[in-house]
Specification:
With 275 residues, the chain is of the alpha+beta class. The protein has nine helices and 15 strands.
Length: 275
């Protein structure tokens, strides 16, 4: 007899209706886009360096403040965990925010950045929105409500991962060689890139959405935080894919992520664990 998954498992049963939460998350994304786009590619953009040597711009801070104010006003009982201003409120229902994922691109005027918004219920990401306003793209999903995208021309369609079932014909994305080297995983990256049909480092949120669209079979990163991952989980899972840590666990705090089309998840884990 198969035991039930633990409550924190991404497979944990959920019977709630997330329709209103998803609508609110999409409204939050609209608000975020309005703030972030006003300063994108501005010649006088204010940029500073955080304690961990990463960059933060005035737009990161302003976008997260706008989202926090909206959540606190309309969902006062919900908690918030944001990249720039930390954690506040309840952990049972928590909005997880990365105001600008891809700050290095943002400050250089490169349009490959996104706002990530997720709602976690009892630690499991149930609602996710990824908004990429500089390219006019958005993706969203929620448990039981499917996964969707809107293109720059306004067309909306459902998302579905690919049906590729052979690693040798798969296309994969990784953040950077340096990231895998810093994690002590250069040998695994070499093994991966030799085994697949095509490998590219598309970077940040976009490859996860390409995976959900059925255009990639694997995306893997190291050094990621909860706010880098949470929004992707419900979108990819509702599109039929799977998201775990590099070790195969359902853990947002593992500092690694391995997302696949689901069909090849076990095969990729076996390949990467091979001595």
């Amino acid at each position: 007899m198969t035991s039930a998954p633990p409550p924190s498992s991404f497979d944990a049963e959920f019977s709630g209706d997330l329709t209103d939460d998803l609508a609110f998350a999409l409204a939050l994304a609209d608000a975020a886009d309005a703030v972030s786009m006003t300063r994108f590619d501005a010649p006088d953009l204010e940029v500073s360096t955080k304690a961990d040597s990463s960059h933060v711009t005035e737009a990161d801070l302003a976008t997260e403040r706008a989202l926090r104010e909206r959540i606190e006003a309309e969902r006062p009982d919900d908690g918030i965990f944001g990249e720039e201003y930390g954690t506040s409120g309840s952990s049972e229902r928590r909005w997880i925010i990365d105001p600008i994922d891809g700050t290095a691109n943002y400050l250089k005027g490169i349009p490959m950045w996104a706002t990530l918004i997720a709602l976690a219920v009892d630690g499991v990401p149930r609602v996710g929105v990824v908004s990429q306003p500089a390219l006019g793209r958005r993706w969203w999903g929620a448990t039981g409500l499917g996964a969707w995208t809107r293109s720059a021309d306004g067309r909306q369609r459902a998302l579905r991962v690919s049906t590729v079932d052979d690693i040798a014909t798969s296309s994969v994305s990784f953040q950077s060689i340096g990231q895998w080297r810093d994690a002590g995983r250069e040998a695994e990256l070499d093994r991966l890139t030799r085994a697949v049909w095509r490998d590219r480092g598309y970077g940040d949120a976009w490859p996860f959405m390409l995976l959900a669209e059925g255009r990639l079979e694997l995306v893997a990163e190291f050094g990621v935080k909860e706010y880098d991952i949470a929004a992707h989980v419900p979108i990819i899972r509702e599109a039929g894919g799977r998201v775990t840590s590099f070790d195969g666990e359902d853990d947002l705090a593992a500092r690694s992520v391995l997302a696949t089309n689901g069909i090849l998840h076990a095969s990729f884990l076996d390949l990467l664990r091979r001595p």
